[in-house]
Amino acid sequence: IELMQGGQSPIHRATPMESSLDVDTEIDYEGLPQGAATSTHMLAGAVAGIMEHCLMYPIDCVKTRMQSLHPEPGARYRNVMDALRQIVRTEGVWRPIRGVNVLAVGAGPAHALYFACYEKIKFRLSDAIHPGANSHFANGVAGCMATVIHDAIMNPAEVVKQRMQMFNSPYRGVLHCISSLLRCEGPAAFYRSYTTQLTMNIPFQALHFMTYESLQETLNPHRQYNPTSHVVSGALAGALAAAATTPLDVCKTLLNTQEAQAVMIQAEGAGAVGGRHISGLGEAFRTVYRTGGAAAFFKGVQARVIYQMPSTAISWSVYEFFKNVITKRQHERLFK
Fold it and tell me: Which positions does the entry assign to Solcar repeats (predicted)?
């Protein structure tokens, strides 16, 4: 998940005279002060990313299984709660969080670099396009560039995580999964879904960003720190973007997991004999359609929306909280 902020609200850069007059006024925290260290963005982003992914991991596990094109009899679920109950009852209480460690390791640096890259590019482009104000165009470009870096780090973690989430996963642990993938499929296995991930995340971020900013203009027009507005806006924005990009997420899951029966269907359609891997968004789309028609592109949409709503709400809340705390502390030091 990757978060964006922006709008046309002015960036507060207080002059010495403004500082002497406005010490007691409400601090504009929407943009961190110009002297804020990159490490502050990285810290806030890393904490937000780790909390988001770890807290919502059991639902993410259910989503991966419900997107399976050929679920085994023991992995056919009516809904999210039914899936969680069955997994805990038949596979153990810790099964829904198996593989969470690799995602936590990936989410920290991925989100830290995402926010550092996003903030730096956003401010530089905003200054060039609209000096003293944020630019929607700058925010969009910054978000896209940050997403490329974020996904480059997260994609291998996503592959390992989804392989371990599948029903009857043959891997004993994270290291066993990594070594097996390297030995059997080569390094390319870790980036087989990278272009699909980008194809999904760029429109996801665009929808997420526009919806969040529109809701903030209604719920929080003065752009002050307002936890309720961040939670509501983040949850609704995440739900809309998640539902709209579900077909791409189904394709990404297929590329990451390489379901055996789906690979056989693709090989038959391509006239190949054994040993093939589904590679590329085009092959994934064709395989999904051959397997279940148009409806297959929305497998797991319920789980994806249920996962994404609290996930984006957590990320926005944590990131905005850290931003607010850091801004206030820097202003307090400035006004001493």
Answer: 36-124, 134-218, 225-325
Is residue 153 within 8 A of residue 113, CB to CB? The reply is yes
pTM for this predicted structure: 0.74
Residue 161 phi, psi (nearest 5): -60, -45
Q: How many whole angstroms separate alpha carbon 111 and alpha carbon 146?
A: 9
Residue 8 main-chain phi, psi, to 5 deg? -95, 15
What domains are defined for the chain? 16-169+188-335 (1.50.40.10)
Which residue shows structure tokens 């969009």?
A: 140
Q: DSSP per residue over 299-336, as a string?
A: TTHHHHHHHHHHHHHHHHHHHHHHHHHHHHHHHHHHH-
Output the tens digit of pLDDT for each of the chain's 336 residues: 444 444 444 444 444 434 443 444 444 445 444 445 677 778 888 888 899 899 999 999 999 999 988 888 888 998 999 999 999 999 999 999 999 999 999 999 999 898 888 878 878 887 888 776 656 677 777 878 888 999 999 999 999 999 999 998 999 999 999 999 999 999 999 999 999 889 888 888 878 877 887 898 889 888 788 999 999 999 999 999 999 999 999 999 999 988 877 777 766 665 554 457 888 889 899 999 988 899 999 999 999 999 999 999 998 888 888 878 877 787 777 776
Q: Which residue is listed with tokens 């490329």?
A: 148
Instruction: Say how far apart CA 309 and CA 291 lie, in whole Å.
Output: 29
